Amino acid sequence: AQKITQTQPGMFVQEKEAVTLDCTYDTSDQSYGLFWYKQPSSGEMIFLIYQGSYDEQNATEGRYSLNFQKARKSANLVISASQLGDSAMYFCAMREGRGNTGKLIFGQGTTLQVKP
Amino acid sequence: GAVVSQHPSRVICKSGTSVKIECRSLDFQATTMFWYRQFPKQSLMLMATSNEGSKATYEQGVEKDKFLINHASLTLSTLTVTSAHPEDSSFYICSARGTRTYTEAFFGQGTRLTVV
C-alpha cells in the first residue's frame, strides 16, 4: 500500500501567488517525520521543510509552510509568493520511527510550474 | 548545512562494463548512507541502506550482485553497477545521515548513468 500519496502530478501557479501541494500519508507509528524536498531539473534534492509528528505547531521556513493535519494524515506544502525559480518537482517524504535511523519513503511527486 | 558530494555527475559506459559512483560526506560523519534510483519524472526508489563497516541492506527486488555497495568509512560510500546493461540507465542519488540529530538527510547531486 502506498504510504505517501501526492495526488497532483502537475500544478500551475501564477507568479507571486500562493500554491498548495497536497500530501497524505499512512502509518501506524506514533512517532514519524514528514519532509518536503524540491528537485529542480538539475536533479539535486533540496530539503525545504520538516514536521515531526509530535510538533504541535505547523512548521515554517521562509516562504514555505507545512499545513499539518494529523487526524487527516495530511501534510500539505504551502508556497507563498511564488517565484519563477520555484518551478520544479516537489516530493513529500516520511520517515517512520523515532530518532534519526529510519529510511525516507517518497511520494510520487508534483511538478510545479510558475507562470510569469 | 552539511554537504554531500557525489561523483561523477554524468557517466556513459558500454554494456558489460562496471561503473563506480562515489558518495562523500564532506563535513560530517555519515553513519548511514542511502542509495536511490530515479527514472524520469518518477519518484525516488530506495535501493539500499548502508551503515559504516557493515553490509548493506537491500530493498526487495534489488539485485545485490548487480549493485554492489561499500561503506568502508564514515565519509565514503560507493555504488558499483556491475556488468551494466541499457536498462540500468537511470539517475542514481545518494543521501547521508550523521551521528548528530539531523532532521533531514543530505543528498548528493546525483549521477546520470547512460549505458550504451
Termini distance of chain B? 37 Å
State the shape of chain B: globular
What is the tally of helical segments of chain A? 0
Low-confidence parts of chain B, pLDDT < 50 over ≥5 residues? none
Strand proportion of chain A, as a percent range, falls in: over 45%
Radius of gyration of chain B: 13 Å
How many helical elements of chain B? 0
Low-confidence stretches of chain A: none
Can you count the beta strands of chain A?
Answer: 12
How would you describe what is shown here?
The complex is a heterodimer of chains A (116) and B (116). Chain A has 116 residues and is an all-beta fold. Helix content of chain A is 0%, strand content 51%. In chain A, a hairpin with a 6-residue loop joins strand 5 (32-39) and strand 6 (46-52). The mean pLDDT of chain A is 93. Chain B has 116 residues and is an all-beta fold. In chain B, strand 4 and strand 5 form a beta hairpin. The N and C termini of chain B lie far apart (37 Å). In chain B, the strands form two sheets. In chain B, strands 2, 4, 5, 6, 9, 10 and 11 form a seven-stranded mixed sheet that branches. Chain B has a four-stranded antiparallel sheet with strand order 1-3-8-7, with no helix packed on it. Chain B is built from no helices and eleven strands.
Helix and strand layout, with pairings?
The complex is a heterodimer of chains A (about 120) and B (about 120).
Chain A: E1 4-5, E2 10-14, E3 19-21, E4 24-25, E5 32-39, E6 46-52, E7 60-61, E8 64-69, E9 74-79, E10 88-96, E11 104-106, E12 110-115
Parallel strand pairs in A: 2-12
Antiparallel strand pairs in A: 1-4, 3-9, 5-6, 5-10, 7-8, 8-9, 10-11, 10-12
Chain B: E1 4-7, E2 10-13, E3 19-25, E4 30-38, E5 44-51, E6 57-58, E7 67-73, E8 76-81, E9 90-98, E10 106-107, E11 111-115
Parallel strand pairs in B: 2-11
Antiparallel strand pairs in B: 1-3, 3-8, 4-5, 4-9, 5-6, 7-8, 9-10, 9-11
